[in-house]
Amino acid sequence: MAPIGTKLHTLFHGKFVGEDEFGNKYYELRKAPKTGRRTRWVIYNGIAEASKIPAAWHGWMHYTHDKPMTTEESRRWPWQKQHLPNLTGTRHAYMPNGHILKGGERDRAISDYQAWKP
What we know:
Strand 1 and strand 2 (25-29) form a beta hairpin. The protein has helices at 4-13, 55-61; strands at 14-19, 25-29, 40-43. The protein is built from two helices and three strands, in the order αβββα. It has a three-stranded antiparallel beta sheet. 14% of the residues lie in helices and 13% in strands. The protein has 118 residues and is an alpha+beta fold. The termini are far apart. The protein has one domain.
C-alpha cells in the first residue's frame, strides 16, 4: 500500500497512464516541468519491489519509450517465460545442491580438487 503522501501527490499531480497484468498502476506528472521531462512513477499492487515491473513497462519507466507499449506490441511469444519478480530471500529462491539450506552436501565431482602435500 502506498504512503499517504504518495497518494495525495498522485491525486493532485498525477495523470494515470496505465496498468499492467499484475495490477501495478503507472502515472506521470500532468504538467511538464521546465526541463520537459515528466516524472514517472508506479504504485505497486502489494509489496513495493522494483523487479515486479514487466519488461513492457520498464522501457517507459526509464524513458526508453515515450508511450507505454500497447497490448499488441507487448504480446508474448510461445517461447517466452512469464515475468517473475526477484525471488531472492524468499522460500522460492533457487538453491543448488550443496547449498547450506539444502543439507550442505553436494555430489562429489569426478575431478575434484586434491590438496598439495609436500
